[in-house]
Specification:
Elements: H1 2-8, E1 13-18, H2 22-30, E2 34-41, E3 44-45, H3 47-53, E4 57-60, H4 74-85, E5 89-93, E6 117-122, E7 134-137, H5 140-154, H6 159-171, H7 173-199, E8 204-206, E9 213-217, H8 224-233, E10 239-240, E11 252-256, H9 262-277
Parallel strand pairs: 1-2, 1-4, 4-5, 5-6
Antiparallel strand pairs: 2-3, 6-7, 8-9, 9-11, 10-11
Length: about 280
């Protein structure tokens, strides 16, 4: 919806984290805009590079960057807000901020500049993707167009699911659920880390403090797509890191752990290690 509204208002290019989610990038391109890569490093989005890119819109994941897992550093967060207040527009994809294990929660950028940030979130990673429930906090100048776009796309989201979610929030049920999920996912993450240490000792692991995935970079691998294909034949589904890049960078893999038990994760990494050695 945001992409359609911005396209109709004349936006033809948006700044996009690199590496960054291929799925969201493909969707942005589908609606008629080019994605200008903006590098990401250990401090998050390179805001200086964004300022020099010439774009007026940036799609970012500041709380838990996908796929690297880094948190946008405080100085860069301030710089991003300054860029937005000078005329830019930030689209903040807050896709899994609730899942954190080794660090405190990170505040949304939206709170710092609500008139210059479009904030997106959903319950896909906290409750269930099939609920199809999400939210969009929009600056006043975009709100009317977005409401109209929503009306003509599907009229309304399911009322029953929204009422159930509202009850979960007000009753405290959602907080209890999240505490249980965090404990379960921490155990899965730990199993994945242990298995990576055993079976892929040369891999460098990124983004362990939060989220539902890890990124690993592999210094001895040139073609991560071929490695992902070998893993697939061995029964393990992973994303090659190059899928999520527009700029050149080291080879790697993105490993999700939310839907598998610790034992299955250990076996998956054992097979992945065998695929790598092959």
């Amino acid at each position: 919806m945001v992409a359609q509204v911005l396209r109709d208002r004349g936006t033809r290019a948006v700044g996009y984290e690199d590496p960054g989610s291929r799925g969201a990038r493909d969707q942005t391109r589908f609606w008629g805009m080019t994605t200008v890569p903006v590098p990401v490093d250990e401090l998050g989005l390179d805001v200086d590079a964004l300022c020099n890119s010439g774009v007026g819109v940036a799609v970012v994941t500041p709380a838990h960057q996908f796929p690297t897992g880094v948190v946008l550093a405080a100085a860069r967060r301030r710089a991003l807000v300054a860029w937005a207040q000078a005329g830019g527009l930030v689209v903040e994809d807050d896709y899994d901020a609730e899942h954190r294990y080794d660090r405190p929660p990170v505040a949304a950028v939206h709170a710092l500049a609500p008139d210059r940030v479009v904030h997106l979130g959903s319950v896909s990673k906290t409750l269930a993707p099939a609920l199809r429930l999400g939210w969009l906090l929009a600056p006043p100048e975009l709100r009317e167009d977005l409401v109209e776009r929503k009306r003509w796309s599907d009229l309304a989201s399911p009322a029953l699911g929204q009422l159930a979610l509202a009850h979960m929030i007000t009753s405290g049920g959602l907080d209890r659920h999240l505490r249980l999920v965090r404990a379960r996912q921490r155990a899965r993450r730990d199993a994945l880390l242990d298995a990576l240490t055993e079976h892929l000792p040369g891999a460098r692991v990124h983004g362990i403090a939060a989220g539902l995935h890890l990124m690993v970079t592999l210094p001895d691998v040139v073609d991560d797509v071929a490695l992902a294909e070998r893993a697939q034949r061995a029964g393990v589904a992973v994303h090659p890191l190059s899928w999520h890049r527009q700029l050149p960078g080291p080879a790697g893999l993105v490993l999700g752990y939310a839907a598998s038990t610790p034992d299955r994760l250990r076996e998956a990494v054992r097979r992945l290690g065998a695929a790598l050695r092959a």
